[in-house]
Amino acid sequence: MVTFTQALLIIVITILSFIITAVGIQLFLLIKDLRTTISRTNSILDQTETLINKLSHPAASMNNLLTGLKEGVTVIETIAAFFTKRKQQSPSPHTYDEL
Question: Who contacts 2 (Cβ-Cβ below 8 Å, separation ≥6)?
Fold first, then answer.
């Protein structure tokens, strides 16, 4: 015969088995949802990277253009300063020592 303790033990083991099975199924579903969420997040990050690259290339080109213009202005200023200095150093055709 089955004693009260054995029957209680069988009932408790059966209930715990159902609870552990339910928790395992919920854990499996949670991991599946987490995998889907991570996949979507990865897709969003890839799209963001593509967008940032598309925006950064024109900005880099604009920076290069401005740097080139700055260098061009510096060259023009250097040439203008050279000719201005040369013009100031040239002797005057009218000298006052002839008096």
Answer: 10
Domain assignment of residue 41, yes or no? yes
DSSP track, 20-72: HHHHHHHHHHHHHHHHHHHHHHHHHHHHHHHHHHHHHHHHHHHHHHHHHHHHH
Angle at 80 between CA 77 and CA 83, to 5 degrees: 150
Does 91 map to a domain? no
CA distance 64 to 18: 68
pTM: 0.51
- 19: tokens are 């609870």
Q: What is the pLDDT of residues 48-95, one digit of tens each?
A: 999 988 887 887 788 888 888 888 888 888 888 887 876 676 655 565
Q: Where in the sequence is the domain holding 48, given as residue range(s)?
A: 7-85
Domain count, the chain: 1
Q: Is residue 26 part of a domain?
A: yes
